[in-house]
Amino acid sequence: MSTPSLAGAQAAPGAAAIWRAIFAGLCASLVGIGLARFAYTPLLPSLIEAHWFAATDVVFLGAANLAGYLLGALAGRPLARRFSNRAVLRAMMLLVTLAFAACAFPVSEAWFFVWRLASGIAGGAIMVLVAATVLPHVPAARKGTASGAVFLGLGLGIAGSGTLVPLLLGFGLRDTWLGLALFSALLSAASWFCWPGTGVAATAAGAAGGDAGAQAALPPLPADTPRTVLLLYVEYGLMALGLVPAMVFLVDFVARGLGAGAHLGALFWILYGVGAIAGPPLYGFLADRFGPTRSMRAVMLVQALVVAALALSTKLVAVGLLTIVIGSFPPGIVPLMLARVHQTLPDRHARQHAMWSRATTVFAASQALCGYAYSAIFSLSGGRHALLFAIGAAALAIGFLVDCAIRRARRAAGRDGALSQAALRAAR
Known about the structure:
By secondary structure, this protein is mainly α. It folds into 2 domains: 15-201, MFS general substrate transporter like domains (Growth Hormone, Chain: A); 220-418, Growth Hormone, Chain: A, CATH 1.20.1250. It contains 18 helices and no strands.
């Protein structure tokens, strides 16, 4: 009886090991992005009321997390090459925990800015590395569902920002920050030994070195792959442009735009969180069931229509239903785009990792720039929420057209390739 090799064991890990890896990824996305970014939103009024910072300073400090997210997306891969995916992910979760604890003490604006920036850096690095660490250990037919489970942490963080944070605020602002630090520390400890032993970097290195023949045997990529990759970057950037208005201005739209008040606005943010919880597993399942291309195209079209409907809606019931659907989009597009990356560069783990890192950077940069641009438009337009939602819907519609352009380019390349092969056969 033969004994399985270590390589074989790594290539086909047991179900328990796969679920441990998925759990670790979920904890990382919950701590690094779900809480580190979205828990700040319901804290804004309390920070101002407690006279920790002025209203203008609070907005500036909130933007520090977005800037840090961009830096983290750029730094994630170099850090993983220097250390390892697992070591960097553990360190980033600890950094978020430390940042939460540090924010409990408003020493100065500079102090607070540095720690909000640090939490953003951790979130960006986690977004780049977590899928590359977990998904190589998941069977190909279940990667969409697995990535949906991993990025469920984003949705849980959004929902937690509307439920957990208000509960913690009952104990005081400082205790809220310390409570978030404790929760992050518990998740970091729970996931510490669940990370896989090797990430995508090791897998890629082994493929490039010890198994170069297998890589050479892979079928060549379509000739239009570089154009497809570029168009996917554009599409992902347009998604960021489309989701920012509702993500940033929804509560204010309900509270002031519709005159429903701050309390009802907070309840609508919880509805947004309900959609955010459903998004990643639902969209990941769709990617596995119907394919990432068709699923993304359908989701883009539906979201464009829903955001456009939000721009025209004034009834709270209708806005509530639309909010649930819109809430599914920000965390749900992550497993969809990740599936598109794997589809575009099949079995090329190192190139998939590089493409995902660049896509995350594009998304982060677009999101940061759009946040400032929308704020300026909102101010110049006299507070017209509908205008912002209309711009977001237009961006999503353009993204849908970009996706259709990718499909047409692929079909044209396929026809050209078939004609070339026929010509070669005729010449022989």
